[in-house]
Amino acid sequence: MTAKMTFIIANAKNALAVPSADIQTDFDGSKYVVVLKKDGTTENVTVTTGISDDFYTEIKDGKLKEGAEIVENSSEGGIDATLDDMGADGGIYFE
Hints:
The chain has one helix at 79-86; strands at residues 16-19, 24-25, 31-36, 42-52, 56-62, 69-70. The protein has a single domain, classed as conserved putative lor/sdh protein from methanococcus maripaludis s2 fold. It is elongated, with a radius of gyration of 15 Å. Strands 1, 2, 3, 4, 5 and 6 form a six-stranded antiparallel sheet that branches. A hairpin with a 5-residue loop joins strand 2 and strand 3. It contains one helix and six strands. It has 95 residues and is mainly β. It starts with 15 loop residues before the first strand and ends in a 9-residue tail after the last helix. Helices cover 8% and strands 34% of the residues.
């Protein structure tokens, strides 16, 4: 017999979250995501991270805005590929 259980150990209300695989670390240790701008260029946007799981990370502070298009981190294979491979629907649960 097997069982699938979910334990919620932290949650955040009205939180902005991004795929954990798309958060990169700069040489100085700061974290950033790559955002696609309207003119087709990209920009590194520094972020402060909060709670996370294997799939998503809360963005607590920074210039990242809701609706921004994040460029998928190709070195990680992307969160969608990971979830598809696992057959998973996991993630952080936000209220």
